[in-house]
Amino acid sequence: MDYQNWGPRGVSAPAKAELPEVPVERGMVLEDFQSGWVGAVTRVEKSGGMHVVALEDRRGKSRSFKLGFGFLLEGRPIRLMPPAARPAASGPAAGRTASGSVRVAGQRAQVAKASRIWVEGKHDAELVEKVWGDDLRVEGIVVEPLHGIDDLTAAVAAFKPGPGRRLGVLVDHLVPDSKESRIADAVMASPGAAGNVLIVGHPYVDVWQAIRPAVLGIDKWPAVPRGQDWKTGILKAFGWPHATKEDIGLGWQKLLGAVRTYADLEASLLGRVEEVIDFLTVP
After folding, report:
1. pTM, two decimal places
2. I need a labelling partner for 103 at 20 to 30 A (CA). Which of 9, 128, 246, 255 fits?
């Protein structure tokens, strides 16, 4: 490298044409020339009207820097730019809802029917609402979060399902021999459940995983060590704040914001939600 032609002044304020402009990408390894800090990009965010990049070194420590001049990429000086604009996320096609259904023009929301969709938590409800909300309002079906299914048998008994008062339940991690499958079996054996209650589920630890990784720009969801809170571990792996309930909520909103249509979700969730809607709406 020719340091006579590129010194400290050239790093901090060179002519625009002197250095290549490189959009920042997650995982890119950079060196901040002034401090000598070397780390991988874990996140990019706007703070105080400017873009800031977080670089995590090999010891797991992180520091933030303003985008622009003063970075080395593979030993070469660059001007670090904001992330490249992603292609506009394709929303629902004209005349279609986010679920892919034909949009009913001028249709007002129906008065809520007695039948309900129950989901495990707030995040499940928000995801179902985002993709299927238009359809459910036309049908008059309300989605309600349960905040867990440990007391599902008692909740179903209190609901008193029957003809015209059906109940569809979407459960996380409904796989053979799991706690969830045993609870579902107990519910379906209870009086009034047969023909009036449908319990379906997806195989994921949490509904977050029903978002296709490619939609988030990753190859697969990070693995979270056993014994660690799953959502906390996911946000930590993404390099996002994860210490508080507020951090968890904000992290979920980022993930939910990437979902535009049913095509952004895994088929294993799509099929189950459609199955529940059919169960509640077909006579």
Report:
1. 0.62
2. 255
Cβ(34)–Cβ(10) below 8 Å: no
Residue in this structure with the two tokens 């939600």, named with its chain if needed:
273
C-alpha to C-alpha distances, 156 to 97, 115, 163, 171, 225, nearest whole angstrom: 31, 12, 14, 14, 34
Could you tell me which of 62, 65, 34, 31 has the C-alpha nearest to residue 47?
Answer: 65
Structure tokens at 278: 């059919």
* Predicted confidence band of residue 9 (pLDDT cuts 50, 70, 90): very low
H helices, E strands: number in the chain: 7, 11
Reading the block at residue 268, the tokens are 């294993």
Contacts of 47 (CB under 8 A, 6+ apart): none
Interatomic CA distance for residues 270 and 170, integer angstroms: 11
Which SS3 state, helix, strand or coil, does residue 59 take?
Answer: coil
Confidence (pLDDT) at 174:
86
- Separation CA 262–CA 96 (nearest Å): 11
Write out the two tokens for 70: 């003063």
- Look at residue 268 and give its three-state secondary structure: helix
- What does 118-153 look like in DSSP terms, one character per residue? EESSHHHHHHHHHHHHHHHHHHT-EEEE-S-STTHH
β-bridge pairing 116-119 and 142-145? parallel
Contact present, 266 and 212 (Cβ < 8 Å): yes
Is the pLDDT reported for residue 102 higher than 50?
no
Q: How far is CA 154 from CA 149, 171, 182, 272, in A?
A: 10, 16, 14, 23
Spatial contact of 97 and 90, defined as CB atoms under 8 Å apart? no
Residue 240 confidence class, pLDDT cut points 50, 70, 90: very high
